[in-house]
Amino acid sequence: MTEATPNQPADRSRDVSRGLAAILALDAVGFSGAMERDTGAAHRQISNHRDNVFAPAIATHNGRVFKTTGDGLLAIFASVLDAVECAHAIQQTLASRGENHDETSFAYRIGIDLGDVLNDAGDIYGEGVNVAVRLEAKAPAGGLCVSQRVRDAIGHQTDLNFRDGGMVQLKNHSRPVQIYLLHPDRATWQRRDVADDAEERPPLSIAVLPFDDMSDGADHAYFCDGVTEDLITELAHIPGLFVIARHSSFAYKNQSIDARRIGTELGVRHLVEGSVRRAGDRVRITAQLIEAETGHHLWAERYDRNVEDIFAVQDDVVRHIAEALSQALGTGKLQPQPAVRPNDLSAYEWVVRGRQNILRAQGREDAKESLERAIAIDPDLCDAHAWLAVYYYTDSFLYHLENARESLIRGYTAADRAIETGPNNSLAHMALGMVSLYAGRRAIALQSLHRALELNPNEADALCLIQEAYTFNGEPEKGVESVRTAKRLNPHYPEWYVWHLGFALYCMGDYEGAAEELSKLRDIAEPLRILAAALARLGRMDEARSVVERFMSAFPDFSSAKWGATQPFRNAAELEHVLEGYRLAGLPA
User: Per-residue confidence at 459, pLDDT binned at 50, 70, 90?
Assistant: First the structure.
């Protein structure tokens, strides 16, 4: 956002007050380029939006503009809910007019924070203003980014569902800030690839909702989430049971939503919900199995145990759920698979903390340290080694380190150790498959990922990741089918699923499909290179060049040759097919 100038004359009388308020910061995306191309048109568009979209929405939601800039504004609201609903209304209005998607216009980012502000005769100052401006820069184009304070304040007062954006370091802010992201296309969770009709849902289908943490203090959140995640994992191993992936289940964390709606959105017939209360060495767990269509409770139980007995409680809950489903549906008895449990509760808690932070940029070092502490306590803890392998895989693949090869070697070592300590652990085989692929061992990668899916057919991430093994092996059609199955198991799938599907579609020559899929990207920039290649193949060169500019601004040192040297395609012609698309789009050689 360009530097703000006060709306009021400099010689106004002083009228100073302070208080808690919600601050909305709005800024145009690509304004400088639009001004360079056609100054008059850009100015007219900004003025039109300010007069006909922003001002009416802000007034309707009881807000007030206190600063304007050439390409944006700052507004203040007494109600944080008004601020959030105003931002959503603005983006929906622009989207409905096609203005967030039309390449001849520019989209907007919005950030909102709640904080103590100083009102100096109409001008507003304070941390809330500064943070809102920084949050705006983190928002997706056409979307909204809010702080933890805002998310907590609105609670259950809105049906809008924000995606966890992780902990981020804001400029000139001493501590990392937890952020949440919303895009108008995803304002309410969409039922992507799920059955809208209850009759079309698999009879044996279930989702485990995040258990409520009823403990005193915040230090037990990892423990509570770990209980939920483990129940999902153990239920997913039951043959014949369709289990929604963790990512989609946790989309409903801290949400109060009707069971029937959740069942429809996830395409399942049954839900598990419950709570955990931990105090000292005692833990109380409640769990209930619910028929989503009717809200009827099929089974419920409460457990009061010592904390050390937590794994026995988890086994008991899984067994009872399997029995209740068998009775309710008149099926043969569902047999839970025996689980290998940690030997030490503290090691388990470190693993839970590590696996929850591993894909958060701001939490990666904490993840690595947590997993290493778990291994120090219990050297034979399979999950700790497997997640450490995942850490090193993402370290080499996503963060483009100079020592990427060293990270892959460490990942391979960790995955081997995971297999050694847990030969029937699906996560261990998935981790081995991931590191094997980029070590150039395609056959081992495919074998390992297939084994992971044999052990856990509901492992959505493995289904998505095996796409790469198929595609690099010259079978992108299988990759497309696999990702689409993964999306069914994980309806609120993360954005990297879009990347995987778009890549496979491009490699099988479906450029229209690849462009359509990859155009949905909002938050990650790396797969834009594939989008640019697809657009170039379609002859849409202006769009391709625009995407290349966006990609290169994020990866200024990108080289097609260096990228190609890291890609384990079986056939050189298939790699050349991708590289030729890069050249057509104008990416650096």
Answer: very high
